[in-house]
Design a protein that fits this description.
It is a single chain. The longest helix is centred in the middle third of the chain and has 12 residues. The relative contact order is 0.24. The chain is of the alpha+beta class. About 15% of the residues lie in helices and about 25% in strands.
Amino acid sequence: ACTSKTDQVIRFGVASAPISLDPRFATDATSSRINRLLYQRLVDFDDQYQPVPALAEWEAISPLQYRFKLRQAGRRFTNGDKLTAEDVKSTFDFILAEENASPHRGTLQIIERIHVIDEHTLDFFLTKSDPLFPGYLNIGIVPAKANAEKTSLDRKPMGSGPFVYESWDHVGTLQIRRKA
């Protein structure tokens, strides 16, 4: 912040370092704030903390079924791959798999199954009715390939958000830049 660099890089000075840059595991405030810049989520919150569409619009088909339709714009991961409904399903399936030990699993256990209709559309089927359900889906979407290969994104995130990870040095300086 005290330099005159104009390289379009954000340098963070934070009270505590983020624990994880992997949204499947991040729970602390610093990690969550940085991950919001690196990853897109299906749902976000407005100023009154009400769930609002982010990456997708949704509708309640029934109290136990929600349909999400991904928006067309801005759906590319940093490696250039398109973000699809399969990536969304894969992210939540990974979190729900007990062996992956995601701290988000408990909240999302209401999900019975996820069905991909096409590359833009998927349905979440619930075990019980919960009108707050869309608000639980504010976790960053990870590429299906990273989920399948159990790739650690802790220090090498691969998101689709408005910023791209640059570096994180041994002193704790984290740098991200706005997508081109």
